[in-house]
Amino acid sequence: MTNITRCIIESADKTNLSRFFSDALWKEKAINDARVKLMNDKTRPWHRAKEITSLSLDNTLREHVGDLFEYVARHYDHSDRRYPLAHNPVTNHYGCGAVRFPVDLALYRRYEEFSAWEHYVKKCLPEATIPHDAKAKAKFQRQVEPTLLQDPEFAELYGRFQTRLQLTSQLIGQAVAHELDFDVVLFDGWYLAPSVVECVRRHHKDWVSVLKKNCNLESYSFTLKDEHAQPLRLAGLQIRVEDVVPLIPRSAFKPLPIADTTYWTFTFTPRIGGLGKVRLVISFANADLTGTYVVLVTNRCDWTAQRIIVANSLLHRDCLLTTDPKALTPDKTIGEACRQQAQSLIEALILYAYDGLSNGVDAPELLSDLFAAQQPVKSRLS
Predict the structure, then answer these.
(1) Is the dihedral of CA 168, 113, 63, 137 positive or negative?
(2) Is 176 exposed, middle or buried (0-12, 13-18, 19+ CB in 10 A)?
(3) pLDDT of 157 higher than 80
(4) 197, CA 20 to 30 Å: which among 7, 139, 297, 299?
(5) How far, in Å, CA of 143 to CA of 148, rounded?
(6) Is the pTM for the entire model greater than 0.90?
(7) CA atoms of 215 and 195, how far apart (whole Å)
(8) For residues 24 and 115, what is the distance between their CA atoms, to the nearest angstrom?
(9) Cβ atoms 220, 132 nearer than 8 A
C-alpha cells in the first residue's frame, strides 16, 4: 500500500505531465470536448432512467506556495476566513446515479489581478493615494474607474473581466453544448442570483440551491397557520426566513426518512424578489427541532420535500452540516465536500479489501463482489 501511494501520489511523473501541458502544442478545448463525449458515451449503459440527472457547479481553492504560478492570487476562503495564495477555478460536474465526472473548468481571476487596476491608477492618476481599508478602497475604485476607462489598455481588460456568476452561466451553456442529458442544476447559496437562475431557465432546466437565512420572503405570497390552524398575520411587506422559522408550529414538521437518516421538514411556496415563486424546504436533523437547520429552494413548486432533498443530497448531507448555528452559509463548498467524500470512499474500499483478504477471501472473488453493482444494466439482467 505504501508503494502504491508513492507511485500514485509522490510520482515524479507529474513534472513531465506539467511540462507537456505547458510546452506541447495541443488544443485544450478540443481535447476536453473529446474527453467529455467519450465519458458520456462510455457511461451511458450505467445511466438509470429514474435517477435525477444533475449538473453541480461550484468554485474551489487550489492553494500554492510562491507567486510564480500564472494567475495566482489571494482569494478569500470563507471556510476558515483567510486569504490563501491560490487559483480559484469554477467547475461543473455531471451526475446520474453512480455515474459522475467533471465536465469543464473556468479559472476565476480577481478584478484587481485581472485588470491590474492599481497599476493603471498609478499610470493615469499618479498623485492619487489608494486607501488600505477595504470599504474605502472599493469606494475609491468606483470613483476613479471612469478616468481609467479612458485608457484603451485598461478598457480592454475591463471589458474582458468575468465574475464568478458570469463564469457559472458560461459553464451551464457549455454543458448543454456537450449534449449532456441533465435535468437539474445544483449550486450553493452564493450562486443563487437572478442571472444564474435566468441562465438555467433559458436552457429549460430546473434548479435546486441553498437559501441564506437572511433572505427576504414576500409576506403576502404565503400563509402560515398556528397550532390551532389559524392564519398568522405577518407584519410588513417582507419577512426574513430566519424570522419565519420560529413561527412554524412544531406539529407542522414531518419526519422524512432518506437512506439511514431522518429529517424533520416543513415546505411551502413563497415568492422571493428576483426569483419569483419558489418552493422552500426547512429541514432539521432531529425531532426536537434544535441546532442548525437548512433551507433548500427550487423553482419546482410541484416537487415534494423528499425529491428536493434527494436532488440536493450532496450539499445537504455534508456541506450544510455547519457547526455554527448562526452561520448564513455552509462551512464547506461543494468541491470540498466531494473531495472529502471521495477520500472516505477510498478509505472504506481499502479497509473492506483488507478485511476480506485477511479472512481468506480470494482476490478474484473480492473484486467480483466490489464491482458487481457497477455492471451495465443489460448484463446484470441477462
Answers:
(1) negative
(2) middle
(3) yes
(4) 139
(5) 10
(6) no
(7) 17
(8) 28
(9) no
